[in-house]
């Protein structure tokens, strides 16, 4: 595991713990010798992670569609900024560069990115570890929703293992490094009965 793709809010959120933990994650990424791949913004939790990676001697690679430069203010101090044409190319580029994924608190965009990489792992498109940084219980409702989907018969119990969770950065990085893709059969139960 060399590069970690971080999905995070382009806002700071309402709880100061989000900012503090995002900064701690950036520091931990750099101190553990990993590189950051992320959306390229200098604002929000995205920017906080990148700033700490850079402040602690790490490498930060941003990937941003040219049309977002006004809304998400581009970080001009990155190790590398890759300009792409749209959001689809952004996600594909980040995925190609990454060896693992972490989702920090965020909104619809963060959720969409997280669920795409989980879906792809479930289908066997990639075998990269995926983690949620459960700062102040932010992702606890999502984890409960996954349990609800398991109880409802839409997610197999073994697929829950595709997602690791922790409330501190060092534990989360350790879980990602130790991750082994679970072994599972067909996703579709009616074909396996």
From TrEMBL:
Its EC number is 3.2.2.n1. Keywords: Cytokinin biosynthesis, Hydrolase. It comes from the Bacteria. Pfam families: Lysine_decarbox (PF03641). Belongs to the LOG family. This is Cytokinin riboside 5'-monophosphate phosphoribohydrolase. It comes from Fodinisporobacter ferrooxydans.
């Amino acid at each position: 595991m060399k590069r970690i793709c971080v999905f995070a809010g382009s806002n700071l959120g309402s709880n100061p713990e989000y900012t503090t933990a995002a900064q701690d994650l950036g520091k931990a990424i750099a101190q553990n010798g990993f590189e950051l791949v992320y959306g390229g913004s200098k604002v929000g939790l995205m920017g906080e992670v990148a700033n700490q990676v850079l402040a602690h001697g790490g490498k930060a690679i941003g990937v941003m569609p040219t049309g977002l430069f006004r809304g998400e203010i581009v970080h001009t101090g990155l190790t590398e900024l890759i300009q792409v044409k749209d959001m689809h190319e952004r996600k594909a580029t980040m995925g190609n560069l990454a060896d693992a994924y972490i989702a920090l608190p965020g909104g619809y965009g963060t959720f969409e990115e997280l669920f795409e990489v989980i879906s792809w792992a479930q289908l066997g498109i990639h075998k990269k570890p995926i983690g949620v940084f459960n700062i102040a219980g932010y992702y606890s409702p999502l984890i409960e929703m996954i349990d609800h989907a398991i109880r409802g018969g839409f997610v197999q119990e073994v697929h829950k293992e595709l997602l690791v969770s922790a409330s501190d950065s060092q534990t989360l990085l350790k879980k990602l490094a130790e991750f082994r893709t679970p072994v599972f059969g067909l996703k579709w139960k009616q074909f396996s009965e």
